[in-house]
Amino acid sequence: MKTEEITLKVITPMFMLGADNKTPELRPSEFKGMMRFWWRAIKASDDINKMRKEEAEIFGGSGENEGKSKVKITLKPTQIAYNEYRVLPHSDTKFFKSNSIRENSTFKISLTTYDDNYFETAKNVLLISILLGGFGKRSRRGFGSCQIINSQQLNCENLSESQLINEILEKLNKISNTYSIQQNNNNIQIKNNQKGGNYPWISRKYYPIEKGTN
Q1: Distances (CA, A) of 212 to 178, 179, 185, 209
Q2: HSE-up of 4 (CA within 13 Å, CB side)?
Q3: What's the rounded Cα separation, in Å, for the pair 210 and 14?
Q4: Residue 76, class by beta-carbon neighbours within 10 Å (0-12 exposed, 13-18 middle, 19+ buried)?
Q5: Cβ-count burial of 81 within 10 angstroms (0-12 exposed, 13-18 middle, 19+ buried)?
Q6: Residue 43: partners with Cβ closer than 8 Å, 6 or more residues away
Q7: What DSSP string describes 64-125?
Q8: Distance, CA of 151 to chain centre
Q9: What domains appear along the chain, each with residue ranges and CATH number?
C-alpha cells in the first residue's frame, strides 16, 4: 500500500455539493470520477473493450470478474470558506446563484493504492486531473480549478511555464507513451501521436507564446 498526499488551493469557485444538492462539500467520488475521465482521455485508445478492462483493473468495475478499485481518495479540509456565486456569471438572475467552495480555500487530498503496481499510474492521473481539469459543476467552463501548492512530487508555485509544460508532458507519457512537444511562432503544443476512439480524448494541448518572450 502506497500513499501520496497533495495540498491544493482552490483558484476558481468550486460547485461541489453534498447529498442535498445545496450544501458545498468535498466529495471523494467527484475526484475519482475525474481521474477516470482523464485516464480515458490520456490513453486515447480505439479499442474500447481493452480500455474498459484496463480501467476496471485500476478503478474497479461492476462487470463480470471486475473487482474493487485499487485506488482510494480521501479529502481533508484545511482552510475552507463558502459563498454564493453565479453559475452563469453574465446573468443577473438569482436562480443562477449557487453555493460554492470559494477561491483561496485549501484542502488536502490523499491517494492510496492497495496494489503497488498501480501507484505510479494513479498518482500521475491524479496530478494531470488537477493540472488540466477542474472539479464539480461547470468545470469545463473553468470553475473548480485548483493549484498544487504542496506535494511530494510537484509544487506548481515554484515552476516556470516551460517547466510546468515539461512536467505535464512527462506525466502524460508515464500513463501513455504517445506524447511529444511541437513549437511554432504562436504556441507550444503537446501532441498525442495516436488517434483515439469515439469518445473525448486528448489530441493536442496548446500553450500560447507571449510576444516579446524567448
Answers
A1: 31, 28, 11, 9
A2: 22
A3: 29
A4: exposed
A5: middle
A6: 51, 54, 175, 176, 196, 201
A7: TT----SEEEEEEEEE--EEEEESSTT---GGGEEEEEPTT-EEEEEEEESSGGGHHHHHHH
A8: 15
A9: 2-167 (3.30.70.1900)
CB 8 within 8 A of CB 148: yes
Residue type, 159: L
What residue has cell string 468495475?
Answer: 61
Task: Name residue 171's amino acid.
Answer: K
Q: Digits of tens for pLDDT over the chain (214 positions)?
A: 899 999 999 999 999 988 888 889 999 999 999 999 999 999 999 898 899 899 999 998 877 777 789 999 999 999 999 988 877 766 665 556 788 999 999 999 999 999 999 999 999 999 999 999 999 988 888 899 999 987 766 666 677 888 889 989 999 999 999 999 998 888 899 999 998 888 899 999 888 876 554 4
Q: Which three cell numbers stand for residue 56?
A: 476496471
pTM: 0.88
- What are phi and psi for residue 207, nearest 5 degrees? -130, 110
